[in-house]
Please model this.
Amino acid sequence: MAGRRSGALATMDEGHMKKLTLRDIDIENKRVLMRVDFNVPFSGKGEIADDTRIRAALPSIRYVLGKGGALILISHLGRPEGKVEKKYSLACCATRLSEILGKPVGFAPDCVGKEVEERVHQMKAGEVLLLENLRFHPGEENPEKEKGFTESLAKLGDVYVNDAFGTAHRAHASTALIASFFPGKAAAGFLMEKEVAELGKLLEHPKRPFYAIIGGAKVSTKAGVMQNLLSRVDGLFIGGAMAYTFLKGRGMPIGDSLFEEKESAVAANILKEASIKKIPCRLPVDLVIADAFDRDAKKQTISVKEGVPQGWQGMGIGPKTVEEWVKELDKAATIFWNGPLSVFEMPRFAEGTFAIARHLAELKANVVVGGGDSLAAIEQLGLGKKFTHLSTGGGASLEFLEFGHLPGIDALSNK
Ligand code: AMP
Model:
């Protein structure tokens, strides 16, 4: 996000910006308008494939109900781009939340308008109502396209709570703009509070040595955070598809591997800065390569010195890289990991990602993982409970580490 500067921290209790949390606001007999992130993935059959995001909001939901508030939940789902698209309806999330809570959860077919207002006004303490997808309205993402949308939404609550850390990096109507309608009554939910506290620890006084492992598809989406992390970490490990742009810059033939030409200068700059700052920057020393981007493709392991032959492409870090990285990671007191290190979605190429995930799970260090894909790999291995913190926000956690604050947090009321 251009224009945002890193620096001041907007943590809940540290730094100079102290934000209200759920515990600070009066909830009894109040209509609590809570932004959650129910942007759940679906199976091919149209069923919720993973309800982690719904469960992540449960502490705040249960707290509000326990304190005698009437709870109005708002969320987005997918990218309907300001139009009603049935496949992005949140109705199934109301059903799932009701099953989890063991109590009825109402569902309103829109998120603003007379009907919703009437329904909200009839709500009693302890009741829950989920409103339809915010992004069915253009005003959610582009307020100038639907004047009055934010205000109509704000009308529904006496107090506002933001528990949607996963969308806190977006300055949308429901995540940031709405807070100005609740002076002194816009608070962070418990998930938001926990995310900011855990990620904040990485920015403020992390236990050292502090290492960051960055993988995933593109240099372009991670360059900012890598640059910022260079002033904070004691070592950077770069894997995944974006490593090939770095490796090519060092003169390695990368065959048909993913390559971002436009990012070569950025990659070279990151390596240069790391060397000036004397931060060891580790790239893969060997790669698992395939003759096609296919789950049944032929595979072989090559060393970086050999390079990738034409007609072949990198699919992830190789066993020698894992061995070297693991030895180094054993020394860490704090680790942040974002982005898979191999195409873990294909079983033949999952090992690079899985080997690192299994090792991180066994370490005594504080290990924080951000990003949907790395989390999916950890969940596939059933290792979720072994990590210090699994951030529910991929983009949000990266932007938080890059800038030190996010629009969705900045907008909340100060203590
Ligand atoms: P991101 O959203 O940027 O974290 O990228 C995640 C995607 O990167 C996953 O779908 C991985 O399959 C993919 N990925 C990781 N390593 C590689 C690789 N070596 N080659 C191609 N894709 C990769």
